[in-house]
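Annex B. Sample input.
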Amino acid sequence: MPLSPTLLAGLRNALGPENVLTAPEDLIPYSFDGTAALRQMPGAVALATTTDQVSAVLKFANETRAAVVARGSGTGLSGGSLPSADCVVLCLAKMDRILELDRANLTLLAEAGATTQAIADAAGAAGLFYPPDPGSMKISTIGGNVAENSGGLRGLKYGVTRNYVLGLEIVLPDGEVLWTGNKCVKDVAGYSLRDLFVGSEGTLGVITRVLLKLIPQPAAKKTLVATFAQMDQAAQTVSDIIAAQIIPCTLEFLDRTTIRCVEDFAKIGLPLDCEALLLMETDGHPAVIEAEAAQMVEIARKNGCREVRVAQSDEEATRLASARRTAFSALARVAPTTILEDATVPRSELATMIRFIAATAKKFNLRVGTFGHMGDGNLHPTFLTDERNVEEMHRVEQAFQEIFAETIRLGGTITGEHGVGVAKKGILPKFAGAPALRVMRALRQVLDPNGILNPGKMFD
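Annex B, continued. Sample output.
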């Protein structure tokens, strides 16, 4: 149902006419996010610049029962910020200020629209470190990172976004503003409401400010790349590294297809005749990283690696790391549609899962490149396809159904960092089970009884 003139008038009055977009050509950039093959035109876009404006938008929407989908830069990969039909897209990208950096308490307060890169740079300029580094960190916003509980390449050692959220300012569906959390390292007063909103995908409230924990910057870092003739050798190397009680800050892998695409794209000098590549980074005290790097080289060689390259400079380290950081971009050049997924299994099942993905792609006559965070079991099978080919897209859907069924069978999870959104809401009941879904539905009903926030996401 089209948005009511009363709602649009209220939005224009609260935000200014220039911050309420309704022309079709202005709505097109907000009709999709980073998820392939999904698009839906909203009814309007509201560009908020303050928490008070966000509150006003939600009050008007709640009164008129209009759907609202919060959005930052739209880099999500599960359709979490995909508009619903005739909804109001509430864009917080203009709320991008870093409000405070508190060196005494190792915290940073930012508005939801601040980019992850801007936060990392601000921390770094103060000699501090914000570890979460999602692949889209140059443009992804911290509000979106919190809503999706984003991960990144450094997740093995440093964890995901949830591990760095100390406090949140949230606007509830009726417009009331809630603050939860503080700068205290320890706080167990009442329910942990902060954790309820982390990963809630915009279904319980709209995040407007985030208080983040920072840590001291590592003194040094060493980057290594090892190549293997067999994926099992790479997987065993990872297992042996962890068993040796080494926790690298980065332990990533690329398969043969991805290696070839990356080399064609970035010209890094990667060997094209190997089945697997491991990117390994250790950070900390210089003496510790030298010892850990030497151990990792020894472990890789023991498992039959063909070559180990150790970066001799920061520039070489950046170039080697780009082999992993450009994986998605490199694969996206190969076919019109690149469908990047997110399956996570226990580390002991990595080789099994990687073989299963390859066999499934062969079964359905599809091209796949697989890369990801081997250190924490988070795989990104990426199908190279064309959304205009309806029959092939059906085969892609069948392949993913089998991949996620196997993921669950192996004791894994259907998403390690991308979220559920619309892409995986059909699989969530199989993974979560009836009791968990009942609790999630009940929480959503209590906080958003009129069902205005991000309808159709996670579950119906």
